[in-house]
Amino acid sequence: MALWSCLTAMFAVGWLGCDVDVEHEDPHTAAVFQVSADDQLIAVPPPPFSEDVFPCSDCHEGEEVNRTRRVVEDHEDVVFDHDSENRWCLDCHDADNRDKLRLASGALLEFTESYRLCGQCHGPKLRDWKAGAHGKRTGSWSGKKQYLLCVHCHNPHTPQFAPLKPQPAPTRPENL
Amino acid sequence: MKGSSHFIRDSIRIVAQGSPAYFGWLALLAICVVQGLLAYQDQVETGLILTSMRDSVSWGFYIGNFTFLVGVAAAAVLLVIPAYVYHWKPIREVALFGELLAVVSIIMCLLFIAVDMGHPERFWHMIPMLGTINFPSSIMAWDALVLNFYLILNLSVASYIIYCANQGRHYNPRVVVPLVILSVPAAVSIHTVTAFLYNGMAARPYWNSAILTPRFLASAFCSGPAILLILFQILRKATQFEIRDDAIHKIAELMAYAMAFNLFLFGAEVFKEFYSDTHHLIHYKYLFGLLHGTASPLAPFAWMSLLFAIVAFLLFLVPATRKNVVTMNIGCLLIYVSVYIEKGVALIIPGYTPDVLGQIYHYVPSLTELRVAVGVFGIGFLLFTLMVKVSIRVLFTQPVTTPA
Amino acid sequence: MKSQDQTIQPAAKVSRRDAIKGLFALVALATTSGCKSDSDALDAYVQQNFREMTAEQLEEALSRWERRYAETFKKEVEVSATPAQEGVLFGYALDISRCIGCRRCVYACVDENNQSRAPQVHWIKVLEMEKDKGVNLHHADQYYDREVVPHPGKFYFPVACQQCENPPCVKACPVSATWKEPDGIVTIDYDWCIGCRCCVTACPYGARSFNWAEPHLEPDELNTKTEYLGNRPRTRGVVEKCTFCLQRARKGLYPACVEVCPVGARKFGNLNDPDGELRYIIENKRCFILKEELNTQPKFLYYYGV
Known about the structure:
The complex is a heterotrimer. Chain A is of the alpha+beta class.
């Protein structure tokens, strides 16, 4: 599912040449991040939320939080398989403010900066991603590269890519 | 030149006369040529896809025949060297036929290249000054130059000899001998350059062995004279053409040495590949059908070629069988077929199988390729027959005055 | 008999020359007869090698092709001749720890570059190899047909033109129809190529494809933004190959294969750019070259991202 939203984002970003306005700081529709080399701000498309799920605080507002580690049955569309032995929902989602993510230090993150959360464990990937060497590459090799968030390709709950059906094998020379 | 129109008329008269067998032969060749032209027309209309060549095996039967015929053309020189350099009477006249064979072979070579090209009408792109020939980097460019040079050279020498004979006088050795001596390195050059065409391809380890070029020359010197030996025996029976037995035996003896060398070089190559046992061995395994799980259509022919070469060598090595008319002719046929298979397909196909990405495509010439090839050979044989007929008539019915 | 004291010209010589000339004329007629306009056909026939053309001749050649494509496809096709940019040397890096063999690059390339659909021409060949044998072409399968990829125990290795710095194809071409451009892309002048396939034979990577028949492309499959040396529809009897999507790259865009790859295995850029991802990959990853011992010096690198 994440892959499909990723592919859709590809089309939007790659083929329409969509380049989100760098100045726009609406956390729900755009994100910016800093590339260390020359402090260039680069825009990414909005996070691929499931329909109507954001803002989470519409449901998760002023409730008693059960902080016991357990397998959570709600959110049936979420299959959790991301180090499920050692991790659970509230390691990444802030218990008190569900509209934010949380780092190990307790610091809160917008969903549009989720790459920083991923980068906590996947440091080398984050480095590669910022350099343009990780992930789908669209845009301009000589100008503005187009970036995607990690979650545009990797479902944060089930990050492993599912096998794809390959496109057809080439015709053998004897059958040409 | 005013005499040329008379000569043309006379030549036409010469070729228009002959025995029923002669006309039967011409008719057969005409059929070969016409069906070849029809097949080529199909190929021109639809494209080279009518051949069995594909990206994996991008050269095949046409280029194989081309390679073989370059060898035949080069081998004509085998007869030229003793004739002119050593002033050896029995071979001097027959050397002319070697040159005519060389001319016809080169023509067939050029035709095989033409039918193999995607755009033969763009041949002028290769002409220096007119096009942009990639000289000296491209070996194919070198090949185009040396082949045409060799053609012009042999054509000039042969026409000059016939011209002089027709005038009733011997050719001027001071004109002919230097040109003939030049034809020796020219002959070596055409075959060496053609060998280099394959040898220089680093992408094809099957060919990228230094021994390839000497192997080319050795097998050319086996097969070229074989054709001439058969030709001379035919001419001896069918016309007033005279050639002494010891000339025939001498040619056969030279062929025996060439065959020994050929087998030795083959053995050396086989040792290196099978003993070192690197990835490159896979091509030889494919050739001889030793690749597990792959039925090579080439294997029976490859073994046949090897067997024929060994048998022919033995027949020519032993003086008794070399001098015996029957065994000698069997030997000639065997070595001709052996080298034809070797140069034709056993050289080309394993170089492409498996291909550079390890994929195997079993190439077997298509009907179109066979038909066009038969057509090209038909043209060659036809030209050769006509030229030989004219030459014999002119050469051997004129009194010839030898220089003092 | 003595009346034959004339100069001799073997009768066969006349007929032989005429036969060859006739053959070429026949072929020239047959191959150029596809073009409706006779003057266009003649101009096309005598056209020079791309590198020898004057600016004017090039303009004429481009318009000629635009006319011909409009006729064939009933669509407006743009044929440009964008020169190389200064200071740019294109390179490519492919992460074989990520490629899953889905072949989307193969077909994105076909769409972008107007390859013939029938007979099928693919510039990219994806090889399925065995993990326990590593990069070993003797155990590679180009024709794998799986339900899903990646198949357990296998890895995938796409190969296309390596854009060598020391290209054996350029060396082999007898008419200089293929050459290396200043930005490193090895290009082909399709109108100069004689179809001898020396280059196909010389290429160690199987990168070059020959048009064995008239290429077939439906008008609705056509990419109308074309380059003379790149993705314009080809004719039969000529060789073609990957050009790093020259029509895109020279305008600052990524090649089609780079953009379509769903796992981000493909990277492209200017080798001269110290801030580009290629330089980053070269410095931080373990890159290697296919058939390095042949000294072709490809600008296409393979690496292991993980």
